[in-house]
Structures are given as structure tokens and as C-alpha cells.
From TrEMBL:
Region entry Disordered, spans: 236-261
Pfam family, one: Glycos_transf_2
Protein name: Glycosyl transferase family 2
Keywords: Transferase
GO molecular function ontology, one term from the record: transferase activity
GO biological process, one term: protein N-linked glycosylation
Taxonomic lineage from the root: Bacteria, Bacillati, Actinomycetota, Actinomycetes, Streptosporangiales
Domain of life per record: Bacteria
Organism of origin: Actinomadura rubteroloni
Domain Glycosyltransferase 2-like per the UniProt entry, residue ranges: 8-161
Record-annotated membrane-spanning stretches: none
Record-linked Gene3D superfamilies: Spore Coat Polysaccharide Biosynthesis Protein SpsA, Chain A
Coiled coil: none
Amino acid sequence: MTTALLEIVVPARDEASRLPDGLVALGGKLRALGVPTAVIVVDNGSTDGTADLVRAGTWPVPVRVLECARRGKGAAVRTGLLATRAPYAGFCDADMATGLDALDGVLDLLRAGNPVVVGSRRHPDSAVEDYSHPLRKLGAVLFNRAIRDLAGGVSDTQCGFKFFSGPLARAAAADLRTDGFAFDVELLMHCARRGAAITPVPVEWRDVPGSTFSVRRHSVECLRDLVRIRLAAPRPVPAPAPVPEPDRALGFAETSEPQRA
């Protein structure tokens, strides 16, 4: 069996209606990249037969299913990233809202040595379909402004299209403690504190009905997680104070060879 160069994690909870088409599209794009790839679907407690459907399907690239009993998108992504073994790893959403053509540039950037490549709907070259209720859009703007310093300056932490060098993905995922929707912030924080530069790339993005995120149901949870992430964030280490130059006026002279009698 050929070892994958890139593995992509797809977290899924009750995605039996959307995931088959998504896996066909994702697998077709991965196959077109011309390198060995694989997909890991992490079933997060589905009750609609999502896992069985994936296992029974025939896909353009190898797809395996993992079970994650711990609820939450963050928990599912963590499980999937820790199971990867490829030189490069990442994750995307089951709805494939982000245009998959962006994978061409992502793989090129990873192979060129960029350790973290993330899709950004706020990139000036992105094409984004206007979406959602104005309150949700305002919340997204405020959310990202509040945490940019934690997430390496990324202006769109919540786009579900992120890729990493494999060892970095697994190390950052091992430190991840956020199970809910704010997990992206903590994951990027763990990358940034390891000195990894984060490269945003433009994407085409469209709103796909059926999102499991609800402003009403999840805002308090996200706020609580952000407070915890900020409190747990590593404190910057202050630079050492500069050593003052000797001041000759105060009688400190340079050391010289002792005079011989």
C-alpha cells in the first residue's frame, strides 16, 4: 500500500445526506493532485448511519472511518489529526463549503516548507457568498478581533480548511483541549507558540444549509472556551534587560595589560 503524502480529516455528525457527495468531490480532487492521498472520516456520535454509509461506499481515494465518542467538532478533529501519519495533514468540513480547487495551492505551499496553510474568507482575493444572519456575521467579526493575538494574527480562524506539516499537526492536536467550535483558535495557538508561521490563502466559499453551529445555542459555549484558552495561553517571555556599557565618567575603565616596571 502506498503511503499517503497528504491525509485530510473530515469530522462528521449525522452527515449521511451530505457526506457521500462531499467525499466524491474531495476524493476526485485529491486524485487529480497526482500524489498519494487519503481521507479520515471521524464519526462524532452520528445516529443516522453516517459511519456505515462511508464504510460501505466506494471512493476515489482511500477513506477510513474512526469513531469519536467524545462530542464536539474539536474532539473529532483532534482524534483524526492524531491518527494521521502522512508528511502533511489537515481538515475540511463535511459540507465542502470551501472550494476544493484551493488544494492545489495549499499542497504547493506545504511542499515549499510553509508549516501552516489556512483558508481565509477575509483574504482580499477570496470569493465569498454573502451568508447568514447579520447578527452571525457581526459575531464572527468580533470573535476574530478578540482572538487574533492568540491565533498568530489570522483574521479568519473559523474557516474549516486548515493544513499543516504532519508532525506539527500531531503535536498541536496532542495539546488541544477544546472540544467545541472554538477549537480552531487553540489549535492555531499551539502552532504559533511553536514558532510556526501561518499562511492564509484565498478561497471560494459558499454557504451550505445544514450547519450544526447555532448562534443561540453555542455562543455562550464559545465565549467560555475562549476565556479558558486565553487564561491558559503561554505568557510571553520578557527579553532580558540590556547590559549597560561601562561609564568611564564614573571611573570604569577598559581592562588593559598591566604596566611592567
